[in-house]
Amino acid sequence: MNSRQALLFEGFRLDRRNQELRRDSGLVALRPKTFAVLQYLAENPARLITQEELLKAVWGPTAVGEGLLRGYIRDLRQALGDHAENPRFIETLPRRGFRFLSKVTIDTGGVENLAASTLTKSPHAPGLIGRNQELGSLHQLLSLALGGKRQVVLIAGEAGIGKTALLNAFLEQAAQAGAARIACGQCVEQYGTREAYLPIFDALGRLCSGEHASAAVAVLGQYAPSWLVQMPGLLSEDQYQTLQKRAQGTTQSRMLGEFCEALEALAGEQLLILGLEDLQWTDLATLDLLSILARREHRARLMVVGTYRPADVIVSEHPLRAVLHDLQAHQQCTELWPDYLTETGVETYLARRFPDHEFPTSLKRRIHRNTAGNPLFLTAVVDELVRDKSIESREGRWHLTIEVEKLNLGKSRSLRQLIEGQLSRLSTGEQRLLEVAAVLGSQFAADLVAVALEIDPVEVEEQFDALVRRHQVLRPALDGFGERADQRSRYEFLHDLYRTAAFDRSSPGRRRHWYKGIAVKLANDLGDRADEAGTELAFYFEHACMPLEAARYCALAGDRAARRFADSEARAQFGRGIELLKGVPESKERDAAELRLQVGLAPILIYSQGYETDDGAAAVSRASELNARLGDGDQTFAAVRGLYMILVGKPDYHAALELCDKMDRVAQNDPDPYAAAEALRLRGYAVMGLGRLAEARDTLTRAVAASRGSERSHWPTAFIEDIRATCTSVLGLIHWMLGYPDQATRLARQAVDRAVKLGGPFTTAYARRFRATIMRWLRNTAAVVEEAEAAIVICEQHGFQFLRMQASLDKGWAMAMQGRGAAAIREIRAALPFAPFTRSGAATILADVCLQLGKTTEGLRAVDDALEFVREHHEGSFEPELYRLKGELLLHSLGRRNHQRVAELQKAERYLVIAIEKAREIDAKSLELRATVSLYRLWSKLGKRPEAQRMLADVYNWFTEGKNTPDLIDARRILEKRRA
Fold first, then answer.
1. CATH number of the domain located at residue range(s) 123-336 in this protein
2. Which residues of the chain have pLDDT under 70?
3. Which of 63, 139, 151, 753 is the most buried (most CB within 10 A)?
């Protein structure tokens, strides 16, 4: 079967080359992995395909859970209009695999060639000299991209070698063919700490403002809402609000995945070329994205072409080089190195620039020797010859006015010297304008230059336009479609070497003065939108020797990076701001600025490094110290909340509760009830950790009620959660423990329904994970599997690693109940390190599974470790169950003749009695019932049956609901059997 031919089945056309599924003429939207699953099924119709075979075919060696595969099958059924109960297309064979039922035929029609012949024809570019070989290589790689094999290409070389010219010529040919969608992003030598994804947002902005803007925006909205929501200028207010809800729960992993899927979706409609200039200046987040994009295995008509300077990468120790080496080692990247022009290339350049010239042959040799064939140097040298009239036009022909040997080319032995000479020949006013422009960067706005020099902006524009007309130093800053980049008059240097030379002409003192004027003007212009240029403003204020103001904008830049889940950039921004403040004299303003930075830094450190991180604890401690010094303010709640998270992570619930008192007091001054609701939620979690279940129930119920009046859905410095859904989830577990299983079941369902309705992935995964836990206590194995796997699918899609491992504990228990003991133990062991402050609860799962499998030694070790943890940290909720399991494990270890080992039986009896006492202390009726049933079975063997029966009857009769749940059914059967 030709892998390029499309497959047809019941009105659907599966286009394998373009990775598209169509019904009639309409496109059926599928994620890339979903498409890959369908493709494999359709390529193997009518036969059983095991889960293992399908996982290996689509994911290769990557370890993927069966729950993730079931999620993709559900998505396919929805897309195809299929039903699991009465399937037309995909049949599920329980515990075996899947079968594709529909008859599949091959489409013998022609495949759309997307103007491939136009794109891959002769690589000659009229405006490009000496680059046919490199251009030909680009076109060969383009042919592979057209066939669905993604390409990542890096053009490497020194400044002036012609990297940009080569890239632009290639992109121009692709654009003229009309068969490629092109997006270009520019990396810049950024201000201080680099801004996350700067060239990517540049490229997306251009993509969404061109000829096919609406289609591009629609694709981003479908596949990459977390990116589109950060470009509000492309959206209406209603669209923006809708996207904000969809983007809740975003992580860095999700952002990276969304971007890749969006590009692949765009490439499914039309070949997509992404150009990235000057990658030697790229930020780490963009570099991660480029690496992931290159490593993805499924096919896509996608080509990424970037440029970079190797020398700059080596000197700055930029990680780009290491990433390229790794990609090249896996044949996932191609590198092109344009060479210097030969004498023939110089001759061609002269012939094109000066048609019908009468230059002596020795001129090309002299110029080549002087410039070494560097294209930028060559152009600049010839410009000089024209400017000093060594080359002139006479009667329609170009002539050399002096002998080649007398040409004064030795005065500029380097390109830098030549550029400096060009600048020195400009007027004093032009030089000063360019010096100011250079401090603004490779691109700049004329009005900011005018502000720095305190002159009329119109005058500045006129002088810049004059330079542009003379093709000297500057050109207009255009977007990807040949239009002005924005409504302001913006310009850019012809090459960064011009900017560097102009920058070095001014003194540090002058630059400080200019930076101050520019910073103040830009900050005033942006107003409430200052975070859009936070990185830039922080740099300007820092170099204006205004560290306090710079630190404030570092905080805004850090927030912006954090919203993009670029942790490295966010940490760098917050850290830079803190460093700047070390030289600022103590004052309230200085402490307030540092508090703002520490409050921003702490949650990033905690969520990225874990609750027990020393760095996170240090940031939280410093924030608390500053807040105590300043008194309560707008950062107090966040500072105290951060310290709470550190304490709960240890865990130290008593100290955490003291902080809840502080949060309560602060929340009273907040007109939005969200803060009060959040304080109650955190208090509820802490008292539950201590085993004060009734108090936890009442507190979380109040939190739910308080949250109803809030306009906010999450705390800005917290991982995004919906208070009502998360509190309701925990309330479900508490109600089961207190002895209300029916209410627990109802609350768990309410939490899941609310989370699904809101659409936030983190909240949904959280609610499903808690429902899985409640179903585990209710011994409903099927429901545990359903909810745990659903939670795991969401967590894997969005990078919620911690929550995923929590759900894996419940899944591991269910696997054991299904007879998959060895796999269950592996699943649970892998998840245990991710449960630092729920260790006792996690230990009950491992011990229970060990009891079922007869692994008493491992089970007892897990219980003993957990009980030591409970004694040290006062974690009381699961202590009764730990003692019950210890008693059961001891009994199991005695074997069938355990009645002969009195001492061991008495020890087991003591642990079961302690379990009952501990359950009564915390009002955990469900745990008391379990422990009482266990004790009844032991006492029956020891001749204490009447006493055991009375005790069990008292507990059983207390329950007013849930009589048909497994624990109560077991108790009822025991009691009925004794009566009989």
1. 3.40.50.300
2. 1-5, 24-25, 61-65, 107-127, 179, 190-193, 210-211, 247-252, 409-414, 478-488, 565, 607-613, 709-721, 759-760, 798-799, 834-838, 896-900, 978-980
3. 151
- We find that the CATH architecture of domain 7-106 is Orthogonal Bundle (1.10)
Sheet with 474-476, edge to edge strand ranges: 443-445, 490-493, 474-476
Whole-angstrom distance, CA of residue 791 vs CA of residue 795 = 6
Let me know if 84 is exposed, middle or buried by CB neighbors in 10 A (0-12, 13-18, 19+): exposed
Please spell the DSSP secondary structure of 269-320, one letter per residue: HSEEEEEEE-GGG--HHHHHHHHHHHH--S---EEEEEEE-HHHHHHHT-TH
Helix, strand or coil, per DSSP, at residue 229: coil
DSSP characters for 808-858? HHHHHHHHHHTT-HHHHHHHHHHHGGG-TTSHHHHHHHHHHHHHHHT-HHH
The whole-number pLDDT of residue 370 equals 80
The residues, ordered by sequence, that sit 6+ positions from 820 with a Cβ below 8 Å of its Cβ are none
Residue with tokens 């490629």: 180
Contacts of residue 646, defined as CB under 8 A and 6 or more positions apart, other chains included, come to 606, 611, 616, 617, 620
The one-letter amino acid at 620: V
* The pair of three-digit structure tokens given for residue 962, joined into one six-digit string: 């849930």
CA dist 341 and 350 (Å) reads 12
Q: Say which CATH topology domain 418-506 has.
A: Arc Repressor Mutant, subunit A (1.10.10)
Domain 838-979, CATH homologous superfamily name and number: Tetratricopeptide repeat domain (1.25.40.10)
Question: pTM of the prediction?
Answer: 0.63
- Residue 957's pLDDT is 95
Q: How many CB atoms lie within 10 A of CB 87?
A: 17
Q: Which option is the CATH number for 343-413: 3.30.1310, 1.10.8, 1.10.287, 1.25.40?
A: 1.10.8
Show Cβ contacts of residue 214 under 8 Å, excluding neighbours closer than 6 positions.
Answer: none
Give the residue extent of every domain in the chain. Answer: 7-106, 123-336, 343-413, 418-506, 838-979
Residue 485's pLDDT is what? Answer: 40
Please indicate whether the domains covering 123-336 and 418-506 agree at the CATH topology level.
no
Residue 581 identity (one-letter amino acid): L
Q: What is the pLDDT of residue 690?
A: 92
Phi, psi of 20 (to 5 degrees): -130, 145
Residue type at 744?
A
